[in-house]
Amino acid sequence: MAEAYIVAAARTAGGKRGGALKDWHPADLGAKVLDSLVERSGIDPAAVEDVIAGCVGQVGEQSFHIGRNMVMASGLPDSVPAVSIDRQCGSSQQSLHFAAQAVMSGTQDVVIACGVESMTRVPMGLPVILPMQAGIGIGPWPQSIKDRYGVSEFSQFTGAEMIARNYSMSREELDAFALESHRRGAAATERGDFRDEVVPLTVVDADGTERKHQFDEGVRFDASLEGLASLKTLKPDGVVTAGNASQICDGASGVMVVSERALRDHGLTPLARVDHLTVTAGDPVIMLMEPIPATRRALERSGRRIEDIDLYEVNEAFAPVPLAWLRELGGDPDRLNVNGGAIALGHPLGASGTKLMTTLLHALKKRGKRFGLQTMCEGGGIANVTIVEALN
């Protein structure tokens, strides 16, 4: 089978809800990443054959085909098509899978996989809330689904609490994990580890001062266990809080995936080779556990062991998710989310897949490591796993 290579990877620095990126239209956010990928690769923009854009809240400013609107707002020519996809939190990771599959099948040679989410301008859950407020329909789950699974709704918050309970995770353990995420994010920021992957954006502060936004706003450099312990749990008898869960975030990210022929014809330098792609689905009620069986399948089918993987990015949607993943897979905590995760850096839903991949690729390069694995839990009990081989 033909190989797929990643030749460029970039992301915006995360913006807090109502923060630095609040005035950026999501199409413009995504367009800046598209332009950066073209610039970083050095390829002719007209050579891009498709743009696959992940986005969860496809309503309001992210409606009417956000992928195509990103292309129209960018420097890419009108001849570049696009498609918008939704696999919940794994949307742009699935974009990467679709791009790699297109290249590996031989049907395309240059594809951009990307994602965007402005959680300030398109609040989480808005596609469900708007029609309900207008008195239209009963929501995304018909009674047949509710009856089948014995629930009135499907909640990731409930799933996170279920995992914590099943693994006897204490509030203190979750908060300690959250604190480490902030510490790693702060250390990576201070070292300048994100500098090469971030696309600086011009923002205007409240006093009218223009500046470059190039640091993730969510990182708490003064985070402490005492501060985390002071936060209320999301459920009265639970252990999950806003402090040990991912932060609401605005941002965009993307990678350029190409064939071996494109490497040769366009004189491109690969960052990594796509080694393996997996997607699985399981229990939609607890839903957040699926990265575990998905990773097991990916390792089995790739012929690799967890010991062969130098670094892994497991999305920190909620602290119980990566903690359970570590326990079940026998992973090394020192290889997990080495620059912090979504608890510190933010989780811009549809952008998080290629955001994590961008950070993983740059971390592998900086450390001179070879294999990286990325996975994340997704709504409905789905999980993607991507294994890459860095070509430093």
TrEMBL record:
Residues 5-260 form the Thiolase N-terminal domain. Residues 268-389 form the Thiolase C-terminal domain. InterPro entries: Thiolase, Thiolase-like, Thiolase_C, Thiolase_CS, Thiolase_N. It holds the Pfam family Thiolase_N. Keywords: Acyltransferase, Transferase. Belongs to the thiolase-like superfamily. Thiolase family. NCBIfam families: AcCoA-C-Actrans, PRK06504.1. This is Acetyl-CoA C-acetyltransferase.
